[in-house]
Write a structure and sequence with these properties.
The protein is α/β, with parallel strands linked by helices. It folds into 2 domains: about 5-165, 3-Layer(aba) Sandwich (Rossmann fold), CATH 3.40.50; about 175-274, ProC C-terminal domain-like fold. The protein contains 12 helices and 8 strands. It has an 8-stranded mixed β-sheet with strand order 3-2-1-4-5-6-7-8, sandwiched between helices. It starts with a helix and ends with a helix.
């Protein structure tokens, strides 16, 4: 257990999917003990079930949780966040740490409603976190750069933790890693459908598709010092089958289409941040 985090009390406002994923990951990896994790939720039954499953502390109000915890994680949906923070604004203590999971809400928007000495960082997880294969992006404000070590200690054991400055880089992280999971599923659907059109049963087509994506990703991970271009070259013999497909992909400008889609997603992220 990292001595830096093992004595901290960490509280989640909201016991939804992302909170449950993170807490289960921490408990599995023994990042901190269950009795150092606190949680509230708007509806009581969900919180009770989560407490029963994990042994963490269920709290009856956000005010009470903020009073007890060193680190408060804002884990409600973005549309609920600003109002919730406004309601408990006077409860935050100077130097308390706030980590926000809310997609699309910039640090300054949260800071506006809070005591200036509170230190805030933003987190951007993606869904494979659920199986210990996620990316956890984060950004800190200039005044909260000392939070980097804390965030890395908390999330390195359960995810690939990546820092990004707020703005263009954080938007790219959101689109590349969080929306990116959705884009990969879209590609997998095309794969599976094409295989089904060529006489494979849906289940077999699905398994083959998953195994192909998984195999390629794991090979790239295992051979981490080999550039992706070199891995591609290794599976492509001159004038062979793969080469013919790749040539067509390039003629059809698949890369341009994907880049265009990424930029559209970035534009939507900017709109939501407003
Ligand atoms: N899931 C992802 O893959 C993902 C990825 C990136 C970022 N995020 C971010 O993570 C955050 C949580 O997402 P999620 O998928 O976990 O959402 P979720 O499952 O809907 O969980 C949100 C929880 O917050 C509770 N809540 C709402 N207002 C509250 C308040 N004032 N005080 C205490 N609890 C309150 C809700 O209670 P009820 O039981 O009453 O609804 C709900 O259980 C969001 O901001 C989202 O943008 C999620």
């Amino acid at each position: 257990m990292d001595p830096f985090v093992k004595n901290l009390k960490i509280g989640f406002l909201g016991a939804g999917n992302m909170t449950q994923t993170i807490v289960k990951g921490w408990l599995e990896q023994q990042v901190l003990p269950a009795n150092h994790v606190y949680c509230t939720n708007r509806s009581e039954a969900k919180l009770q079930k989560f407490v029963d499953q994990t042994g963490i502390n269920g709290m009856s109000s956000n005010e009470e949780l903020i009073d007890v915890c060193d680190v408060v994680i804002l884990a409600m949906k973005p549309q609920d966040l600003l109002l919730a923070v406004e309601e408990v604004q006077p409860c935050f203590k100077p130097d308390q740490v706030i980590l926000s999971l809310a997609a699309g809400i910039p640090i300054r928007a949260i800071q506006k409603n809070l005591n200036a000495s509170v230190r805030i960082a933003r987190l951007m997880p993606n869904t494979p976190l659920k199986i210990g294969e996620g990316v956890m992006g984060y950004a800190t404000s200039k005044e909260a750069e000392d939070l980097k070590a804390l965030i890395e200690s908390l999330f390195n054991p359960i995810a690939l933790t990546v820092e990004a400055n707020e703005g263009e880089t954080f938007e790219a992280l959101t689109v590349g890693a969080a929306s990116g999971v959705g884009f990969v599923f879209e590609l997998m659907i095309y794969w599976q459908e094409w295989l089904e059109e060529h006489n494979f049963e849906p289940q077999v087509a699905r398994e083959m598709t998953v195994q192909t994506f998984l195999g390629a990703a794991m090979l790239a991970q295992k051979e981490e010092s080999t550039q992706l271009e070199q891995l591609l070259a290794k599976v492509t013999s001159k004038k062979g089958v793969t080469a013919a497909g790749l040539q067509s992909m390039r003629e059809l400008e698949i890369e341009r289409g994907l880049r265009y889609s990424f930029e559209k997603a970035v534009m939507r992220d900017k709109e939501l941040a407003k």
